[in-house]
């Protein structure tokens, strides 16, 4: 049976990369980790990109899987050599996504997923025009506050800061391609899966 | 429980229309009708826009459901009054999509679906910038020919013409947003459903 279809093949190979770059952002407490874990199970062909960090490993964290742990000097060298697609300093620690890791995943035809903040997402979009930016929002600020408090891990001051950060991030949704409101994990994962599947069918002009 | 989230509400109301406009195109014989029927079943909130035509009703066709049947004079008046989002003459008959019908569907928050040819799709995109154009392609030209022949309804001449039209349409895929290859109905419908769901989560800048 003939499978050849010259014109269609032309359009498929127009894509610079066989796999997509998916950026997932959303305020602390919205449930990104839970949702991303379930999404990877529900949607084959997704690889989360391992971030480089200067902070110390926490108990149970696996180097090369949870993070790539490097020294501050090595991190600075990677910045100087332009190896990061985006990086950020959070308090005293630095976190960065190396472009090489993203490219490696995309070249195999799998989609690379980054879980980064809105500022990082905007930097990625500037450098990778076909990156797909998804913002996961809470149903309301009150619900976000409730979720943060239910974790029992943050001080009052930390919660206030996280809520302020959330408002600032939500104000930048316009820079994003998709907005998913996380009412419940199952529905959110299904919406995210649909976005990933749809983007695989996108025609690039 | 508070549901108010001012910033989010602002972004939701930025959309000019609550519902989307989905355009489905693809060569004759690719299976658009089968796929679209199944899609409407699998994906609530989709309304196919009823086309106006000057041709005579065929046995079993329900006016106002399958088509709106109008005289050539009335069709011309609708053209003159700019009522059509797009229209086309096929042999001696005319077919047109009225903008009012599309708007009426979208205003209710449902998605309007048009099944039209690529030329019509391009016209729609010029007039409705946020229209979502999906092209359904056959796995190969050989498979398309096999499907056309298995219908036993076309003359040899008609099949040759349809295959030529198909090549011309495929050459214009670049104007489309999404490309779905119809290997089997079930997979195709699921891909289309994902595109429709994803577009509902799109942020408009």
* Shape label of chain A: globular
The helical percent of chain A reads 40-55%
Specify the CATH architecture of one domain in chain A: 3-Layer(aba) Sandwich
CATH homologous superfamily classification of one domain in chain A: P-loop containing nucleotide triphosphate hydrolases
Notes on the structure:
The structure is a homodimer of 205-residue chains. The first copy, chain A, has helices at residues 6-14, 32-42, 72-80, 99-107, 118-127, 141-150, 156-170, 185-200; strands at 21-25, 46-48, 51-53, 67-69, 84-90, 93-98, 111-115, 132-137, 178-181. The mean pLDDT of chain A is 90. In chain A, α2 crosses α8 (185-200) and α6 runs antiparallel to α7 (156-170). In chain A, strands 2-7-1-8-9 form a 5-stranded parallel β-sheet, with helices on both faces. The radius of gyration of chain A is 18 Å and the shape is globular. Chain A has a domain at 6-49 and 109-200: Rossmann fold (3-Layer(aba) Sandwich), CATH 3.40.50. In chain A, β5 and β6 (93-98) form a beta hairpin. The first copy, chain A, has 205 residues and is of the alpha/beta class. Chain A has 8 helices and 9 strands. The A-B interface holds A 1-5, 7-8, 11, 135, 137-143, 167, 170-171, 173-174, 176-181, 190-191, 193-195, 197-199, 201-203, 205 and B 1-5, 7-8, 11, 14, 135, 137-143, 167, 170-171, 173-174, 176-181, 190-191, 193-195, 197-199, 201-203, 205.
